[in-house]
Design brief:
The protein is of the alpha/beta class. It has one domain. Helices cover 43% and strands 22% of the residues. The chain has three helices and six strands; from the N terminus they run βαβββαββα. The radius of gyration is 16 Å and the shape is elongated.
Length: 116
């Protein structure tokens, strides 16, 4: 059993993870911040990619900007869920704000029920 814990924001994980899942029982635990779902109005902020160092100025006071960022985040999470399902990878989204134990418990309950 392999646990893969990540925010899955980096590029290029798909092929290696798909190959790994063909040979092993993999559980993906994507970590997310609830603020990604509902972007707060905090004015202008710089968002920085920690790996590339690239920065972009975002005006969160603009409701269209907040809505667009939230939709983008939702589409990305849905794409991840689709990828995991396609490759037979169990997953549970883990919030940086909530207790992850309950989410893991639900995941293992689903796994037990599926194997009966």
């Amino acid at each position: 059993l392999i646990f893969f814990i990540s925010d899955f924001v980096d590029w290029g994980f798909e092929r290696p993870l798909g190959c790994l899942a063909r040979q092993h029982d993999v559980i993906a635990l994507p970590i997310f911040d609830p603020l990604e779902k509902k972007i707060p109005d905090v004015g202008k902020v710089y968002l920085r990619d920690p790996e590339s160092g690239h920065e972009i100025l975002v005006n969160t006071s603009n409701s269209n900007t907040r809505m667009g960022l939230s939709k983008l985040s939702k589409r990305y999470r849905e794409g991840l869920a689709s990828f995991f399902k396609k490759h037979g990878i169990d997953s549970a989204q883990i919030s940086t704000k909530d207790d992850y134990i309950a989410d893991l418990h639900k995941l293992f309950q689903r796994r037990v029920l599926r194997r009966r």
